[in-house]
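User: quick one, sequence for these tokens?
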């Protein structure tokens, strides 16, 4: 099973590749920057609602988020 930390690391990779700042991502997701920090640190889970928002930003299908992470981090 993939840990929340590994999912946070994957999110950080997408963030880096997109050249968005954490502040810009927070604004696009309509959450505050401390929540972004928690996501990146693996302290909170990526909810289905958040996965849908991430899909729009990073063009990664929300329904595949966990499978994608498990496949490439296993």
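Assistant:
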């Amino acid at each position: 099973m993939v840990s929340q930390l590994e999912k946070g690391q994957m999110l950080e990779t997408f963030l880096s590749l997109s050249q968005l700042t954490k502040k810009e991502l927070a604004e696009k997701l309509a959450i505050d920057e401390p929540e972004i920090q928690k996501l990146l640190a693996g302290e909170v889970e990526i909810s289905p609602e958040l996965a849908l928002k991430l899909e729009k930003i990073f063009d990664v299908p929300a329904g595949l988020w966990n499978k994608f992470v498990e496949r490439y981090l296993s």
